[in-house]
Amino acid sequence: KVKTVCSKILANLEQGLAEDGGMSSVTQEGRQASIRLWRSRLGRVMYSMANCLLLMKDYVLAVEAYHSVIKYYPEQEPQLLSGIGRISLQQIGDIKTAEKYFQDVEKVTQKLDGLQGKIMVLMNSAFLHLGQNNFAEAHRFFTEILRMDPRNAVANNNAAVCLLYLGKLKDSLRQLEAMVQQDPRHYLHESVLFNLTTMYELESSRSMQKKQALLEAVAGKEGDSFNTQCLKLA
């Protein structure tokens, strides 16, 4: 319903009418400002719809919705294409389609300057290797990202997971524990804690005591909305 309202107002403005469909007396500059405002609002609505569809696991419609958002936020095209590629890879399991989207991201980011574009391309390559069970190569890409951005939590977490799959449990545990100790407020989130507690279970019969220590650390940093199921205490 919100999308319909936004679309109708935008159509009225583009036809030279007022937002409510009546006659308009605003200047051309004012009209263009209103069009930009309502295009931005419609883009946010479409993005929210795409997120909801993703949570509902309707991946085909979610991908269509994310595609439509690019029209309203062209400056976000690399991030949106990366997201669509990761849906194809991680949710649908379609490696070829994911690879195509990641190649499109690389073409778009070649026109951009800055560190974020390079990190995005490296991250996509790392996830692609993860999807192909090529953990050594994935770890190499995540490590390269950390060289460029040492505080990148996603790269840090996934590099540790790669070490686990490469049979280096101790190294993996050291990396995750170092993350959490270095900056608890930045790194104490659910995916990191789930991986850490899983490794504690693999590493030691004292895993419950270590999980309880993590719970105490979380209690001092997070609010009541924190999902403690990631600590696997039950």
Task: Give an account of the 3D structure.
With 234 residues, this protein is mostly helical. It has a domain at 1-57. It has twelve helices and no strands. The model has no long low-confidence stretch (mean pLDDT 86). It comes from Homo sapiens. Keywords: TPR repeat. InterPro entries: TPR-like_helical_dom_sf, TPR_rpt. One of its GO terms (cellular component) is nucleoplasm.
Search tags:
mainly alpha, 12 helices, single chain, 234 residues, 75% helix
Write a brief caption for the model.
This protein is an all-alpha fold and 234 residues long. The chain has 12 helices and no strands. The mean pLDDT is 86.
Average pLDDT score: 86
Q: How many distinct beta strands? A: 0
> What oligomeric state do these chains adopt?
single chain
What percent of the residues sit in helical stretches (DSSP H or I)?
Answer: over 70%
Structural class: mainly alpha
Q: What is the H/E string?
A: HHHHHHHHHHHH
Q: Report the portion of residues in β strands.
A: under 5%
- What's the tally of helices? 12
The biggest sheet amounts to: none
Principal-axes geometry comes out as elongated
Uncertain residue ranges = none
**First-to-last CA distance:** 42 Å
Rg estimate, integer Å: 22 Å
